[in-house]
Amino acid sequence: MILEGAHRLRRVLLSLPDITLRVGWLRAHLGELRDSEAAELLSSLCEDGERADPDSREALLVVAMVLAAGGDSPFVERLRQHAEERRLLSLARLLRRGADSPLSGRRSEPPVPDYGTGRELTVGERRSLARSNNRRVLEKLLRDPHPLVLRQLLGNPRLTEDDVVRLAARRPLHHTIAPTLADSPRWLRRPRVRLTLLLNPGTPEAISMPLLAVCTRTELLEVVHGVDAPLALRGSAQELLERSPPLQKGVSGSTVLQ
User: Fold this and answer.
1) How many domains does one find in the chain?
2) Domain range for residue 44?
3) Engineering a disulfide at 43: which of 49, 55, 88, 120 sits with its beta carbon 3.0 to 4.6 angstroms away?
4) CA atoms of 46 and 242, how far apart (whole Å)
């Protein structure tokens, strides 16, 4: 029954044309299930994805996004407990928690950028600016610490992938950045953004662990050899590498929905 349910879930996810729709649908669907059913379904999808089945990996990207956006929510914590108690190893690996990184708990607040008005703008005014087409304004907004401003900015069509990668690479990583990016399917679907978050020691493991599920072999190797990566993250990356199917000659990794 679980296997049939996972296949049906995968078909529904892949029938939806947009990544944001897929994430929203899966989040709503999981909320309708008992926690034990949700854990079993997600674990089955994780196992299929580890075997490098293309459709399963495309669906697994949606799972990774939902879990990363969930962070340390009560729902994700219940899933983690079910995965550990029922030995759902593939799901448990993506929900593993290690010791907090020294940088992940930092809460120092950077100053609000000077927007040239002679006073500190309100959050509402800064959110309005986040709709701007002016590149100089967007550069300032990328340094704004408020999550509502950042969320508005991430929806700006003038923002580029390079902008978001620079944001995700910031050290120290302000505590609002990773959760806001994790809740932005538009940008989390980009492999460069995901890898940058994975390699940043300030990214909480509640966000970085699920993203390992859709890494290529090359990306997993970068995490394994990342000197700043938390030990638990590197350990999970190493386990996924060992479970990956052997590479065909000349192939460096598999891909997921771009």
Assistant:
1) 1
2) 2-96+204-243
3) 88
4) 15
pTM value is 0.87
Neighbours of 17 (CB within 10 A): 7
Q: Is residue 120 part of a domain?
A: no
Query: 57-103, pLDDT tens digit by residue?
Result: 899 999 999 999 999 999 999 999 999 999 999 999 999 987 654 44
Q: Is residue 137 part of a domain?
A: no
